[in-house]
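Dear colleague,

As promised, here are the two records you asked about, laid out in our usual form so they can be pasted straight into your sheet.

NAME FIELD: protein one
SEQUENCE, THEN STRUCTURE:
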Amino acid sequence: MVRHLLFRPKALRYWLLAAVHLLFIPLPARCETLTVVLDFQLLYSRPDFSSPQVGRVPLGANVEKVQQRGDWIEVMYGGTKGWIHSVAVRPAGSGATRAPIIPTILRPEPVKERKGDEVALAGKGFTPEVEAAYRQQHPEMQYQLVDMVESFVVDDEALGVFIREGGLRP
């Protein structure tokens, strides 16, 4: 009797309609968990370093991937949604706790990591070693003024306004 009711032409239409509806119901997206492998990462409101910051993510924190656009990944961390550059994260469980150090090419010993400002100064030929030699050759210079200028902190929001108003590209 049940079989007779299930396979009646009218009931068959309802079963078919229900099956079609099930095909078009979106399934929940599988969240991918990523681990932050670089210190002091910022979350941005758009996939652009010059966009406003919406939060910070510490080294080793797990974030949930929402979507990816090129080299940028939109993530959710601590209730905050923002964009982070793909270089700063690795798939969770990959064993990566820090970004890999650039391998040595010409030397067997590891490359000494440098800070960003040291790299910029080295590009101009001014390394910590050059600075020490310059200080020794010119003791009359007022280096405390240079140290004071180097200690100035610029607000991220003010820097963003300066970049936008100045028409600078990051």
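NAME FIELD: protein two
SEQUENCE, THEN STRUCTURE:
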Amino acid sequence: MLDVSRLLEAIKAAPYEEIVIRAPHTGVVKLADIKEGDKVVGPSGEWKEKPGTLLASIVRERNTRPITSGQKGVISDIRRDLEACFVEAGTPLFTLRHFLSKDEVQQSILRKALYLFVAPERAKYYFTPAVDLKVKVSGSASVTVSEGMELFIMSRMKRETPLYYFGPEGVIYSVYFVHNQNTETGQPLIGVCPQNRIREIEEVVVRVQTEWEEQE
């Protein structure tokens, strides 16, 4: 059985993730007006069309590309020694300390509690028509999966092949793939919860929603 209390305490001890922001390609770095400890924001808008805080720009062959924050958080480890220097792709420029939201904590714990059925290769994935209809009408939790069930259509290189489920019997509690977008090899497609553990999982969700205090 999942020890939710221990997991929550471990996350509370370090309620953030540190993300290294790197140069997206080679070029000359120009840092934005930003200081250690500054708070930054990620993309916003209905379609995330508004970019996050500008952190730097990188110039290559007279083309300037902005480097913006992909998450809300606090900036540290600014590489001021690289100002106006030519850098290779992947060079660390900043560290972003992103404080976890309730939803992120919940998803982190659920990924440990559920059985994750992962993508066997990089491709686009779709539920089979019958499963897709049931998910759209009644939600993913209405679908019970079992060993050998034809669950997905895997689309790659203009070729579609069926993908069969293997793992414990249960309901689809979480859906991780995005319609019409590629899922990388090894990334989860769905999270499955056995019927006899649904109550336990629901208690996890309630505890996170009531006990987790988000930081601004």
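A couple of things worth noting about protein two: The two ends are 33 Å apart (CA to CA). The mean pLDDT is 91.

Best,
R.
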